[in-house]
Input
Amino acid sequence: MRASAVWFAYSVSSSACGGSLAQPATAPQPDGAFADVPYPPPPSRVETLPAQPMGHALWIDGQWSWDGARWAWLTGAWVIPPAGGGFARWALRMSPDGRLSFAAPAWRDAQGRELPPPRVIAPAISEGYGSAVPAGCR
Output
Protein backbone atom coordinates (compact mmCIF):
# COMPACT_ATOMS: atom_id res chain seq x y z
CA MET A 1 0.00 0.00 0.00
CA ARG A 2 2.76 2.45 0.95
CA ALA A 3 4.66 1.80 -2.29
CA SER A 4 1.57 2.51 -4.40
CA ALA A 5 0.90 5.74 -2.49
CA VAL A 6 4.49 6.88 -3.09
CA TRP A 7 4.22 5.97 -6.79
CA PHE A 8 0.94 7.90 -7.10
CA ALA A 9 2.48 11.02 -5.48
CA TYR A 10 5.52 10.77 -7.77
CA SER A 11 3.44 10.33 -10.93
CA VAL A 12 1.17 13.27 -10.07
CA SER A 13 4.09 15.59 -9.30
CA SER A 14 6.13 14.54 -12.33
CA SER A 15 3.22 14.91 -14.74
CA ALA A 16 2.51 18.41 -13.44
CA CYS A 17 6.06 19.50 -14.25
CA GLY A 18 6.97 17.22 -17.11
CA GLY A 19 4.24 17.46 -19.73
CA SER A 20 5.01 18.45 -23.28
CA LEU A 21 4.71 22.03 -24.44
CA ALA A 22 2.76 23.11 -27.49
CA GLN A 23 5.35 23.22 -30.29
CA PRO A 24 5.07 24.71 -33.79
CA ALA A 25 5.12 22.80 -37.04
CA THR A 26 8.72 22.30 -38.10
CA ALA A 27 10.45 23.28 -41.33
CA PRO A 28 13.83 22.22 -42.71
CA GLN A 29 16.80 24.53 -43.00
CA PRO A 30 17.67 25.06 -46.69
CA ASP A 31 21.33 24.68 -47.71
CA GLY A 32 21.52 28.42 -48.43
CA ALA A 33 20.76 29.21 -44.77
CA PHE A 34 24.11 27.81 -43.57
CA ALA A 35 27.14 30.04 -42.99
CA ASP A 36 30.57 29.14 -41.62
CA VAL A 37 31.24 29.77 -37.92
CA PRO A 38 34.60 29.49 -36.13
CA TYR A 39 33.38 27.42 -33.16
CA PRO A 40 30.17 25.81 -31.81
CA PRO A 41 27.71 27.61 -29.51
CA PRO A 42 27.99 27.51 -25.70
CA PRO A 43 25.69 25.28 -23.63
CA SER A 44 22.01 26.23 -23.45
CA ARG A 45 20.82 28.58 -20.73
CA VAL A 46 18.30 27.70 -18.04
CA GLU A 47 15.00 29.47 -18.61
CA THR A 48 11.88 29.66 -16.47
CA LEU A 49 8.80 29.35 -18.65
CA PRO A 50 5.87 31.61 -17.83
CA ALA A 51 2.40 30.07 -17.93
CA GLN A 52 0.95 29.66 -21.42
CA PRO A 53 -0.75 33.04 -21.99
CA MET A 54 -3.43 31.76 -24.37
CA GLY A 55 -4.48 28.38 -25.72
CA HIS A 56 -3.14 28.83 -29.25
CA ALA A 57 0.31 30.17 -28.21
CA LEU A 58 3.25 27.87 -28.99
CA TRP A 59 6.55 27.62 -27.14
CA ILE A 60 9.89 28.30 -28.88
CA ASP A 61 12.91 27.23 -26.80
CA GLY A 62 15.70 29.69 -26.12
CA GLN A 63 18.66 29.11 -28.43
CA TRP A 64 21.93 30.49 -29.65
CA SER A 65 22.34 32.43 -32.89
CA TRP A 66 25.55 33.59 -34.57
CA ASP A 67 25.60 37.37 -35.16
CA GLY A 68 28.69 37.33 -37.39
CA ALA A 69 31.16 37.92 -34.55
CA ARG A 70 29.87 35.99 -31.52
CA TRP A 71 27.07 33.76 -30.24
CA ALA A 72 23.99 35.66 -29.01
CA TRP A 73 21.27 34.11 -26.85
CA LEU A 74 17.69 34.32 -28.17
CA THR A 75 15.36 34.02 -25.20
CA GLY A 76 12.61 31.38 -25.41
CA ALA A 77 9.04 32.64 -25.65
CA TRP A 78 5.39 31.91 -26.20
CA VAL A 79 4.45 33.09 -29.71
CA ILE A 80 1.55 33.00 -32.15
CA PRO A 81 3.04 31.35 -35.25
CA PRO A 82 2.63 32.90 -38.70
CA ALA A 83 -0.12 31.33 -40.79
CA GLY A 84 1.24 28.59 -43.03
CA GLY A 85 4.67 28.82 -41.44
CA GLY A 86 6.93 26.24 -39.85
CA PHE A 87 9.81 26.77 -37.47
CA ALA A 88 13.27 25.79 -38.68
CA ARG A 89 15.38 25.26 -35.56
CA TRP A 90 19.02 26.28 -35.58
CA ALA A 91 21.31 23.69 -37.08
CA LEU A 92 25.04 23.09 -36.94
CA ARG A 93 26.90 20.81 -39.32
CA MET A 94 30.50 19.89 -39.97
CA SER A 95 31.88 19.48 -43.47
CA PRO A 96 34.31 16.65 -44.31
CA ASP A 97 37.22 19.13 -44.09
CA GLY A 98 36.22 20.06 -40.50
CA ARG A 99 34.54 23.45 -41.12
CA LEU A 100 31.46 24.24 -39.02
CA SER A 101 28.37 25.74 -40.63
CA PHE A 102 25.42 27.22 -38.77
CA ALA A 103 21.85 28.00 -39.85
CA ALA A 104 20.00 30.47 -37.63
CA PRO A 105 16.51 29.66 -36.34
CA ALA A 106 13.84 31.03 -38.65
CA TRP A 107 10.18 30.77 -39.60
CA ARG A 108 9.74 29.46 -43.16
CA ASP A 109 6.85 29.02 -45.55
CA ALA A 110 6.12 25.83 -47.50
CA GLN A 111 8.62 26.87 -50.20
CA GLY A 112 11.41 27.40 -47.63
CA ARG A 113 11.33 31.21 -47.80
CA GLU A 114 12.02 33.02 -44.54
CA LEU A 115 9.01 34.65 -42.86
CA PRO A 116 9.04 37.57 -40.42
CA PRO A 117 9.34 36.35 -36.82
CA PRO A 118 6.09 36.28 -34.85
CA ARG A 119 5.32 38.66 -32.02
CA VAL A 120 6.48 37.44 -28.61
CA ILE A 121 3.51 36.99 -26.25
CA ALA A 122 5.43 36.01 -23.09
CA PRO A 123 9.25 35.60 -22.91
CA ALA A 124 11.11 33.18 -20.65
CA ILE A 125 13.38 34.33 -17.85
CA SER A 126 17.00 33.29 -18.51
CA GLU A 127 18.81 32.06 -15.42
CA GLY A 128 22.14 30.67 -16.57
CA TYR A 129 23.17 27.46 -18.33
CA GLY A 130 21.24 24.20 -18.57
CA SER A 131 17.71 23.45 -19.78
CA ALA A 132 14.26 25.01 -19.56
CA VAL A 133 12.29 24.73 -16.30
CA PRO A 134 8.51 25.31 -16.28
CA ALA A 135 7.33 27.88 -13.75
CA GLY A 136 6.22 26.21 -10.50
CA CYS A 137 8.50 23.18 -10.99
CA ARG A 138 11.61 24.42 -9.23
